[in-house]
Amino acid sequence: MRRDSEQPKPQLFLQETPARPAEDICLETRHLSLDYQARVGKENQTRRALEDVSLQIARKRVTAFIGPSGCGKSSLLRTFNRMTDLDEQSRLSGKVLLEGEDIHARGVDVPMLRRRIGMVFQTPNPFPMSVYENVAFGLRLVGENDKRHLDDKVESCLRSAALWEEVKDRLHDSALGLSGGQQQRLVIARTLAVEPEVLLLDEPASALDPISTLKIEELIRSLRSRLTLIIVTHNMQQAARVSDDTAFLHEGRLVEFAPTDQLFTNPRRRQTEDYITGRFG
Amino acid sequence: MDITSDSHGKHISEQFNHELDALKTHLLAMGGLVEKQLQDAVTALLEGDSETATRVRDNDKAVNDMQLKIDDECTRVLARRQPAASDLRLVLAVIRATSDLERIGDESSKIARNAISLVENGQSPRGMVEVRHLSQHVRSMVRDSLTAFARFDTDLALKVLREDASVDLEYQSAMRSLMTFMMEDARQITPVLNVMWILRALERIGDHADNLAEYVIFLVKGVDVRHTDTHDLKPQDLDKK
Hints:
The structure holds 2 protein chains of 2 kinds. Chain A is of the alpha/beta class. Chain A has helices at about 75-80, 110-115, 130-140, 145-160, 165, 180-195, 210-225, 235-240, 260-265, 270-275, and strands spanning about 1-5, 25-40, 45-60, 60-65, 90-100, 100, 115-120, 200, 230, 245-250, 255-260. Chain A has a single domain (about 30-275), classed as 3-Layer(aba) Sandwich (Rossmann fold), CATH 3.40.50. In chain A, the strands form 2 sheets. A 6-stranded mixed beta sheet of chain A has the order 7-8-9-4-10-11, sandwiched between helices. In chain A, strands 1, 2, 3, 5 and 6 form a 5-stranded mixed beta sheet that branches. In chain A, helix 3 (about 130-140) packs parallel to helix 6 (about 180-195). Mean pLDDT of chain A is about 90; it is low at about 5-15. Chain B has one domain (about 15-225): Phosphate transport system protein phou homolog 2, domain 2 (Methane Monooxygenase Hydroxylase, Chain G, domain 1), CATH 1.20.58.
């Protein structure tokens, strides 16, 4: 991935971000723009996924990104643990700061970064091994082999992910035998095992039935006492239910970022209003 | 963000547009009925027409039925649509407004009952001038608050809020003079008390119109001005909140 350091453009959209003292900010973007190459016919064209996004995400709160398909919400999430690196053609400008440090700077230890910022995807992706080994996987990777310590850690992570009671008698069965909702909670438990500071969730419940969805949402609420969560969702009611702050993105720009209560009762922008009330924009 | 009276159209769901439109239309129809009840009650009182007064008393059930019907529609919209932002504020404002309109209906029927009693037991020698004056005042407040609702007009709503203070003053001064009169002539206590109940009902109607105006501000601006000093609110204060 190439980086360039062009001058940030002036902000076109006035943002009413919740004012926060600097010590409460966990993750921050400054004038973040992202371009990628799209194949159109036989030619490559540069498309802009994010345009000058500046926002501050508070520690130990749930922040939701909402917006129509293609608005850049998933792209924005992916810049937070350098998933955008995987696309060699993409070009990023501006900064993403984790606890004040630029995570896209040269010399950043990316695997370490991804330990600090965990991610969960739309489709549950447990490893094809036992429930126990799924959770222990990350710990073994960092050199933890003490059986008793692993047992304790697996249990506490499964409890944190509200899955322990359902799987305690089948810890050594294959994780692929679990239901979709259980698999997703297992994936969250696996992520929690390496004690991330931030958990990114990209449509974590959109492949699940309503009851499993509620369990995931309940889990998200319970986890906010220990880490910062950022969730991308198409489901506005879900954003309204689980998040403390909500950012609305449209065509790669941050249109409005406000406490969820305010955004869903009295948004400041026409575009936000139209989107959350289901009108033609 | 401010909204206008046509803001509730344009949903991707045409059916949702219809449902919200129906809420507004039904609320304004209820408002029209309540306004008519108030007008008839006051006319019956001033003209000593017990037939009209009886009709007002009996019509109160129609007002109550409308409240039930509109509240039921609101419940359905909340359950089925999970409205947000200005749609949510519309539903909340309509629920609140039906309750105040129903109370205006109750007060009108109280006025009608007192009018009947005055026809049967003899008119009060005092207080009718005050009743006429106060009733004109609160009727215009009710009318303006409903117009403000129909047009999403916060300036008109603010005008209603400002008027409530002068209604309160008129009411207090009328009560004082009637009390003095009762002390001077104890034989007139019964009819004068009827007039005092009527003045009290009119004053309460002014308060309900005041509430309606507050809901218009909530609906349009998203600002809740209940339980604040609203008598000297300026348009620019609403944007600052």
